[in-house]
């Protein structure tokens, strides 16, 4: 069992789950589920004679129980977001929001609220790969003192549809096609793009989904958004509309597409393992928590309808107020009961928080509760991961399959002659809905502002950096290239022209279809804050938790190896030594190092950066195809690369581009396109004092470039156009 680092969470949730926890290492005999000790779990009871094994006996209650339990191990996977993983943690409030809400979790700064967070992809099934191009789910269950509060959000702030009644159409279109169940973990197929064309309301979300946001480097490096509009209500009964934001401490970073595709095969659990290992190492991921607030009376003051989930609230108009922090600090003990059985409901809110008339939220409030009953049964909220930590009891809600709770007493209805299990007044903490005034006629319609579908898609596109725009064009092209129905890709290339002419022309050039000659509608030229993910670099440069490979073979220079390893580990990077074999690799000076992996067991795609120490080992590396391709591929994937002394010419040869300048023998350190090379004494080259853009030392510059995540200039200058 993996050791759990000390969790800083001081709460009752773990104590609560302890009641249902057993330990296979507790030196307890194996029993049947009804409690008798088992003497032989390996043989079915059967008739045997000296020569023959006879038929197995149905009488064997032990064998039948074992097989029958196995036959029923699976439950239906989630209809969307089936692939995911989660962890426990807590929420801390720094600033009370009592001016806008009475919710204890958002007003009491002395509290630490325990929580569970599940990340997911949307399209693929439970066993699909982590790094597919897809929206990521960001679902939080806060076990507050007033009941569970679920925020069932995504890493993208808008959604594909405006009205919940469209959800089954949308999901059917993106999931594998019905006739052949293809493709898995991809939206790159005719039906999805047909849907997007048919629903211009999907345009805005479609641009986010084609951006690098949909191929995150890590769950720990993406934003979370509540997406829907909720309400907060204060003690004077005043209502504000609210959107919830989570901004990661490590910044927002993505893989490059070629890398994401390869990791799907090389390590389908890449994101799962990344989260688990960071928590195990005590490098707890953190997000700042913020609110965007619109007072009720200002709801109509915007060009767009703030209750439309296909629109963001531009930060220039509605700034984010950061008031708290979310931290994940404990891995689950067992996946099935604590992650597969975790179940969220957008309708789970606590006093002080309320819904809005966001038509998507209204439908979701019905759907989630319903799906949990189908997936987990009527008593799904009794499961340890789902139940609240505060006292809870209803004398009316009872029975149903798998009921665990035993409710004592002679009455099961309210009111009753004993006044047993009475409701609570508002003063006693009872939930009361915001008394919103309602007028209108019944109609299948949305308010007028919902009809505008392109403005914010254009603002999003205009706000992206040049490199993000290049990636967007490649993503649209990749996806539409996978559509083989000309009607689908020709219509779509034309539709892109409603947002950007240059993008539509590039995509049409790549995948066919009519290249539009003018924009279908004028570009309003507006940009907004917070849309380009490059705005979200960490406040202080960091390489904490970055996976860095050091390549070695027999004859490597031990002093530069060890000095760089120490320098990187001092910055909390995860350093891995990759060698010709996973047994002693001998240094020039005689020391032996046992690598973490051998070359063929790993690929450069699974690391953020690579260092090659000096030494005679470069002769062997130069003959090793995996080691050579490692450098070529790392360069193509825009990753920082460093090498000293003999390694400099080895690196230069694999990159083989005159634009990339490396240190000449006799000179000390050179940096070019994030490739940092140097000649000289290891101590001098690898000493780290200050890390920043002006740093001079080799290790300092390497660390700085790793902290920048990727060297975009390589791609902008056409040196890495295969990605
Ligand atoms: Fe949903 C799961 C996020 C619209 C119906 N959704 C689900 C999960 C996330 C989201 C993160 C996984 C929860 C988990 O980890 O267990 N969904 C969203 C967001 C939406 C959204 C951000 C738009 C604002 N969803 C949406 C609509 C409907 C649903 C409009 C139905 C009308 N979603 C479901 C569901 C799922 C689900 C079918 C499948 C598994 C589950 O609920 O628990 O009910």
Automatic annotation (TrEMBL):
Coiled coil: none
EC main group: oxidoreductase
Names of the cofactor(s): heme
Biological processes, Gene Ontology terms: cellular response to hydrogen peroxide; hydrogen peroxide catabolic process
InterPro entries: Catalase, Catalase_AS, Catalase_clade2, Catalase_clade2_helical, Catalase_core, Catalase_haem_BS, Catalase_immune_responsive, Catalase_large_C
Keywords: Heme, Hydrogen peroxide, Iron, Metal-binding, Oxidoreductase, Peroxidase
Pfam families found in the cross-reference section: Catalase (PF00199), Catalase-rel (PF06628), DJ-1_PfpI (PF01965)
Superkingdom assignment: Eukaryota
SUPFAM superfamilies on file: Class I glutamine amidotransferase-like, Heme-dependent catalase-like
Residue ranges annotated for the Catalase core domain, each copy included: 31-422
Enzyme Commission no: 1.11.1.6
List of residues binding heme: 368
Protein name from the UniProt record: Catalase
Species: Penicillium frequentans
């Amino acid at each position: 069992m993996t050791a759990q680092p000390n969790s800083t969470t001081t709460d009752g949730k773990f104590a609560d789950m302890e009641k249902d926890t057993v330990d296979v290492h507790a030196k307890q005999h194996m029993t049947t589920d009804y409690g008798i000790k088992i003497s032989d779990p390996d043989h079915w009871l059967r008739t045997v004679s000296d020569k023959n094994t006879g038929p197995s006996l149905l009488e064997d209650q032990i064998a039948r129980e074992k097989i029958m339990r196995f036959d029923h191990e699976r439950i239906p996977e989630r209809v969307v977001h089936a692939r995911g993983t989660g962890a426990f943690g807590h929420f801390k409030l720094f600033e009370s929001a009592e001016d806008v809400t009475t919710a204890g979790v958002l007003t009491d700064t002395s509290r630490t609220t325990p929580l569970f967070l599940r990340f997911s992809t949307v399209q693929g099934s439970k066993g699909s790969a982590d790094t597919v191009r897809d929206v990521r789910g960001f679902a939080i269950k806060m076990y507050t003192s007033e009941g569970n509060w679920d925020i069932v959000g995504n890493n993208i702030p808008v959604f594909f549809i405006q009205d919940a009644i469209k959800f089954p159409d949308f999901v059917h279109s993106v999931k594998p096609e019905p006739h052949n169940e293809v493709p898995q973990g991809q939206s790159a197929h005719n039906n999805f793009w047909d849907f997007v064309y048919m629903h211009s309301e999907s345009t805005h979300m479609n641009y986010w989904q084609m951006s690098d946001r949909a191929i995150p480097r890590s769950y720990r490096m993406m934003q979370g958004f509540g997406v829907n509009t909720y309400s907060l209500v204060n003690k004077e009964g005043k209502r504000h509309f609210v959107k919830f934001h989570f901004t990661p401490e490590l910044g927002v970073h993505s893989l490059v597409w070629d890398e994401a595709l390869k990791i799907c095969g090389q390590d389908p659990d890449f994101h799962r393992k990344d989260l688990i290992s960071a928590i195990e190492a005590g490098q707890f991921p953190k997000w700042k928590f913020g609110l965007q607030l619109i007072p009720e009376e200002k709801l109509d003051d915007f060009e767009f309808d703030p209750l439309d989930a296909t629109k963001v609230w531009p930060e220039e108009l509605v700034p984010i107020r950061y008031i708290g922090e979310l931290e994940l600090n404990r891995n689950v003990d067992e996946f099935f009961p604590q992650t597969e059985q975790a179940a969220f409901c957008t309708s789970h809110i606590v006093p002080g928080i309320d819904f809005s008339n966001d038509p998507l939220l209204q439908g979701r409030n019905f759907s989630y509760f319903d799906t949990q009953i189908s997936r987990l049964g009527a008593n799904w909220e009794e499961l340890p991961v789902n139940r609240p930590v505060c006292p809870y009891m209803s004398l009316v809600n009872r029975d149903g399959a798998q009921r665990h709770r035993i409710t004592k007493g002679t009455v099961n209805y309210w009111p009753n002659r004993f006044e047993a299990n009475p409701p609570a007044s508002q003063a006693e903490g009872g939930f009361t809905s915001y008394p919103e005034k309602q007028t209108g006629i019944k109609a299948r319609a949305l308010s007028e502002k919902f009809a505008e579908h392109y403005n914010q898609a254009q603002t999003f596109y205009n706000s992206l950096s040049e490199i993000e725009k290049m990636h967007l064009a490649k993503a649209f092209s990749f996806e539409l290239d996978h559509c083989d129905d000309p009607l689908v890709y020709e219509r779509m290339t034309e539709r892109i022209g409603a947002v950007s002419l240059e993008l539509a022309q590039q995509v049409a050039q790549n995948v066919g279809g009519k290249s539009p000659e003018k924009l279908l509608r004028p570009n309003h030229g507006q940009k907004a804050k917070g849309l380009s993910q490059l705005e979200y670099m960490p406040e202080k440069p960091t390489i904490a938790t970055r996976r860095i490979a050091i390549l070695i073979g027999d004859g490597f220079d031990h002093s530069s190896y060890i000095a760089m390893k120490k320098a990187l580990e001092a910055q909390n990077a995860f350093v891995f030594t990759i060698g010709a074999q996973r047994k002693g690799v001998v240094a020039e000076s005689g020391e032996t190092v046992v690598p973490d992996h051998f070359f063929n067991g790993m690929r450069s795609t699974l690391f953020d950066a690579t260092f090659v120490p000096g030494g005679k080992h470069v002769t062997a590396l130069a003959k090793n195809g995996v080691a050579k391709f490692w450098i070529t591929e790392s360069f193509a994937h825009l990753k920082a690369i460093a090498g000293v002394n003999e390694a400099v010419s080895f690196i230069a040869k694999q990159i083989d581009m005159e634009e990339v300048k490396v240190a000449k023998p006799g000179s000390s350190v050179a940096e070019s396109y994030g490739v940092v090379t140097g000649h000289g004494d290891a101590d001098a080259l690898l000493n780290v004092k200050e890390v920043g853009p002006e740093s001079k030392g080799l290790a300092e510059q390497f660390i700085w470039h790793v902290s920048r995540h990727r060297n975009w200039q390589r791609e902008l200058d056409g040196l890495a156009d295969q990605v």
